[in-house]
Amino acid sequence: MIIIVAKSVVKPGCKAAYIAAARELIEKSQAEPGCLTYDLYEDLNDPSTLTMIEFWKDQAAIDAHNASPHFTTIVPKLAEFREGPGEVHFYQKAE
Amino acid sequence: MIIIVAKSVVKPGCKAAYIAAARELIEKSQAEPGCLTYDLYEDLNDPSTLTMIEFWKDQAAIDAHNASPHFTTIVPKLAEFREGPGEVHFYQKAE
């Protein structure tokens, strides 16, 4: 299993638009066979921070996701609402 | 549901000790009634970063966790192996 934590700071006034644009990405990603969980969360201590937390079966599932039409079309749109590139971490269980 | 993402950078040579000390905390936390998932992950791009990713039913579950014997005894020990205070984010689903 690989977990992705993708943290974004949204531009002032763009939060609702970001969440609305992300909705289709979330629904279609959740439907992907290798997706265990995938959703968008807001930081309780910083309303401008929105973070996607994603649990994937393996790297192949992530590769398929990154090549999917919903990823390739929606993710660039989300970037328009974001301050800077965002912060993305990839995790695996610590053994 | 509330998600906690607690990111720590461990001191050189302290990673194995950190993971070993966290094991009991993980097992006992996972057994708590309000815990949906709780585990320790390593950053695939930065071996010194270890992050606890926790899904809790609600704030009451977190309060009970923070008051638990395993939390109050083990978390201070983990701090000994960490560089600085760590970075903790609390998230709820973005609506």
Automatic annotation (TrEMBL), chains A, B:
SUPFAM superfamilies: Dimeric alpha+beta barrel (SSF54909)
Top-level taxon in the UniProt lineage: Bacteria
A single MF term (Gene Ontology): monooxygenase activity
InterPro entries associated with the record: ABM_dom (IPR007138), AI-2_Isomerase_LsrG (IPR050744), Dimeric_a/b-barrel (IPR011008)
Keywords linked to the UniProt accession: Monooxygenase, Oxidoreductase
Domain (ABM) ranges: 2-90
PANTHER family noted in UniProt: ABM DOMAIN-CONTAINING PROTEIN, QUINOL MONOOXYGENASE YGIN-RELATED
Protein name: Antibiotic biosynthesis monooxygenase
Species, as recorded: Gehongia tenuis
